[in-house]
């Protein structure tokens, strides 16, 4: 998308800085915004409700910059981006530049600034449990995801009972796939998933061992990354029937980055559904289409 709304050099008086003098005396801050959104309907209908109200945006930015004081303008920028993306569903991404015209640091500077870009991402998560109340742990994990302000659970697959993966003897798993929309960057989302696992008593004592809950970040938009902490897409997607079968149920035509093949194609090429059995079909009834209210 190439449509943008630009709000340039909005000027405010705030009390941000690492020095006590900055927080006491205050100073001017300038803010630039670039909002990406589809403006076709606004342009063809001439209706205000089909665009973003610039006056409202200005007021929100003003409340943030002139409200609480922060040590870092990085925090100011993050707060602005979060408020806009949470408050305006038409905005797909938000680039924020916060400028401090007169920084109290040695040397000659016209200004210092921080610029960030945040966006709505679509991610696919794999959920699994094979200890205790397996369905109960899946439900609690979904509730924890939905409770996060920056996460929206969009769609859930049916629940499948699957044979354990790996060489560790253990009970069968319940597995499912969840599509979410999130404002978290990929690493921040991974950390959030790990916190949810910890709250649900996930222990990491045996590799591929039994667990109360497992939350795997499988795909994050079309991002490709390689690191010790996070590789995207998940490197085992194409080899795991318990991932591909539920994923093909809710996103059969998703092209997985790096692999460059659709989920349905990978599932069909896996040759066999052994070890993956439908346990509870998502019929749209009850909580998340799976659980009784």
Automatic annotation (TrEMBL):
Gene Ontology molecular functions: 2-amino-4-hydroxy-6-hydroxymethyldihydropteridine diphosphokinase activity
SUPFAM superfamilies linked: 6-hydroxymethyl-7,8-dihydropterin pyrophosphokinase, HPPK, Tetrahydrobiopterin biosynthesis enzymes-like
Stretches assigned to the 7,8-dihydro-6-hydroxymethylpterin-pyrophosphokinase domain: 207-218
UniProt cross-references to SMART domains, sorted A to Z: FolB
Keywords: ATP-binding, Folate biosynthesis, Kinase, Lyase, Nucleotide-binding, Transferase
Annotated pathway: Cofactor biosynthesis; tetrahydrofolate biosynthesis; 2-amino-4-hydroxy-6-hydroxymethyl-7,8-dihydropteridine diphosphate from 7,8-dihydroneopterin triphosphate: step 3/4; Cofactor biosynthesis; tetrahydrofolate biosynthesis; 2-amino-4-hydroxy-6-hydroxymethyl-7,8-dihydropteridine diphosphate from 7,8-dihydroneopterin triphosphate: step 4/4
EC number: 4.1.2.25, 2.7.6.3
Catalytic activity: 7,8-dihydroneopterin = 6-hydroxymethyl-7,8-dihydropterin + glycolaldehyde; 6-hydroxymethyl-7,8-dihydropterin + ATP = (7,8-dihydropterin-6-yl)methyl diphosphate + AMP + H(+)
Function: Catalyzes the conversion of 7,8-dihydroneopterin to 6-hydroxymethyl-7,8-dihydropterin.
NCBIfam families the UniProt entry points to: folB, folB_dom, folK
Family: In the N-terminal section; belongs to the DHNA family.
Annotated protein name in UniProt: Bifunctional folate synthesis protein
Organism of origin: Sporolactobacillus shoreicorticis
């Amino acid at each position: 998308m190439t449509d943008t709304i630009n709000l340039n050099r909005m000027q405010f008086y705030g009390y941000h800085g690492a020095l006590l003098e900055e927080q006491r005396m205050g100073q001017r801050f300038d803010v630039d915004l670039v909002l990406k959104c589809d403006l076709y309907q606004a342009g063809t209908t001439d209706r205000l409700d089909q665009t973003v109200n610039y006056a409202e945006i200005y007021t929100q930015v003003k409340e943030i910059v002139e409200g609480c004081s922060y040590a870092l303008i990085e925090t100011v920028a993050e707060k602005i981006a979060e408020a806009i993306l949470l408050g305006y569903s038409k905005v797909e991404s938000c680039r924020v530049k916060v400028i401090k015209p007169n920084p109290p640091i040695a040397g000659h500077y016209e200004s210092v600034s921080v610029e960030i870009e945040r966006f709505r991402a679509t991610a696919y998560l794999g959920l699994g449990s094979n200890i205790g109340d397996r369905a109960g742990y899946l439900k609690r994990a979904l509730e924890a995801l939905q409770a996060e302000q920056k996460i929206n659970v969009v769609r859930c697959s049916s629940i499948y009972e699957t044979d354990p993966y790996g060489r560790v003897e253990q009970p069968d798993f319940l597995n499912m796939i969840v599509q979410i929309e999130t404002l978290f960057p990929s690493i921040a989302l991974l950390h959030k998933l790990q916190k949810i696992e910890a709250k649900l008593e996930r222990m990491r004592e045996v590799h591929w061992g039994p667990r109360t809950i497992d939350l795997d970040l499988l795909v994050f938009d079309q991002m490709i990354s390689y690191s010790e902490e996070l590789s995207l897409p998940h490197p085992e997607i194409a080899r795991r029937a318990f991932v591909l079968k539920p994923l093909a149920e809710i996103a059969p035509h998703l092209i997985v980055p790096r692999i460059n093949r659709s989920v349905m194609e990978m599932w069909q090429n896996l040759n066999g559904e052994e070890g993956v059995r439908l346990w509870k079909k998502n019929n749209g009834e009850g909580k998340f289409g799976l659980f009784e209210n």
